[in-house]
Amino acid sequence: MQIAERDGKLDIRSMLPEELAEWLAANGEKKFRAGQIFRWLTEGAADFAAMTDLSAALREKLGERFFLTPPTVLREQRSERDGTVKYLWRLADGNAVESVLMRYSYGDSACISTQVGCRMGCAFCASTGMGRVRDLLPSEMLDQVRGIELRAGVKISRIVLMGIGEPLDNFENVLRFLELVNRPEGMNLGMRHISLSTCGLTEGIDKLARYRLQCTLSVSLHAPDDETRDKIVPANRGRGVKELMRACRDYYEATGRRVSFEYAVIRGVNDSPEQAKRLAALVKPIGGHVNLIPLNEVEGSPLLPGDTRAFAARLKDLGVNATVRRRLGADIDAACGQLRRKQATGNR
Ligand code: SAH
């Protein structure tokens, strides 16, 4: 993969140890230093001067060729109810993205963003209005995870790519990020502890399936029929639910990993008994799990939450493996995109 450049300097935090080793060898340095440098980067070193087990000359050389600009925190909000913490980070170019720390009994999870904004245009989403500004670099995704660890004093054991952005619309950078966190010399996080959430870019799902990674694929389905899904998830247009389910089945067959389906229950839109039946018919054949999300109301949107529990009961009666997502951080706007949106509209 092409490593990004800024002002003639390379993004060292997006590089794998073997790429660092190659650069070192080409620049008259010992290859094994790559391991030392990679460890410093994994720990979240803020500058090359901190890498005290490297010679001053090498640190200087690194500073000339590479950039290292961890984000700074703009806002941090902690839920009094459940310990959820929401972060708004300022990136080197002045853009802002969000991440959320969620504290579960089985470990601390980081929900991170993959793009600045999003161009998928889902009707219920807080990130829709402002479009996509740019893709995040692998280093900028890594920085969110490490930033949370350093600020909250926790060890992240799960990552969900469910913040702002569409991960499969930033495929190469997301793939490199997965590789970086998975590396034993790095964070050493197992692929099974990572979930990637997509609005259903089928060509991206197909591409991901070819890597046979063990990460969980979460598909934001939200409607079982094209008529409804075309309206609320525009990425459905030209692809369709049938083709999406084909891609999910292939993903399951290629990886052995069951696909999980996100479904925000919206009153009068996707919550009818008929839609529950159609949903059951889609997911049961591939052993899919349905994760029902209580709709977070977004200012200015006419969409209202439906009765999630009633819909869940209906699905269970139909033999579907369905759960209702707990609302973490409801008191701190921890729902997708809401903090960045407030920042941009000046509405606090
Ligand atoms: N683009 C990816 C990941 C980001 S969105 C995707 O579409 O999956 C993460 C999840 O939050 C998705 O399931 C999305 O549909 C859901 N979501 C977005 N806005 C929401 C809202 N207002 N209420 C409930 N869920 C929402």
Topology:
Layout: E1 5-6, E2 9-11, H1 17-26, H2 33-43, H3 56-65, E3 66-67, E4 72-78, E5 85-90, E6 96-104, E7 107-112, E8 115-117, E9 132-135, H4 138-152, E10 156-161, H5 171-182, E11 194-198, H6 202-211, E12 216-220, H7 226-232, H8 240-255, E13 260-265, H9 273-283, E14 289-294, H10 308-317, E15 321-324, H11 338-345
Helix pairs in contact: 1-2, 4-5, 6-8
The structure holds S-adenosyl-L-homocysteine (SAH).
In short:
The protein is α/β, with parallel strands linked by helices and 348 residues long.
Task: Report on the architecture of this protein.
With 348 residues, this protein is α/β, with parallel strands linked by helices. It has eleven helices and 15 strands. The strands form three sheets. It has a ten-stranded mixed β-sheet with strand order 4-5-6-7-10-11-12-13-14-15, covered by helices on one side. Strands 1-2-3 form a three-stranded mixed β-sheet. The radius of gyration is 21 Å and the shape is globular. The protein starts with a strand and ends with a helix. The protein binds S-adenosyl-L-homocysteine (SAH). Residues 120, 122, 124-125, 162, 166, 197-199, 220, 262, 264, 293, 295-296, 298, 335-336 line the site of S-adenosyl-L-homocysteine.
Give me the secondary-structure category: alpha/beta
Low-confidence stretches: none
Strand order of the largest sheet: 4-5-6-7-10-11-12-13-14-15
Q: How many β-strands, per DSSP?
A: 15
What distance lies between the first and last C-alpha atoms, to the nearest angstrom?
A: 40 Å
In N-to-C order, the SSE pattern is EEHHHEEEEEEEHEHEHEHHEHEHEH
Q: Averaging pLDDT over every residue, what do you get?
A: 93
Radius of gyration: 21 Å
Global outline = globular
Q: Roughly what fraction of the amino acids lie in strands?
A: 15-25%
Ligands, ions, cofactors: S-adenosyl-L-homocysteine
Give the fraction of residues assigned to helices: 25-40%
Count every helix, treating DSSP H or I runs of 4 or more residues as helices: 11
Biggest beta sheet attributes: 10 strands, mixed
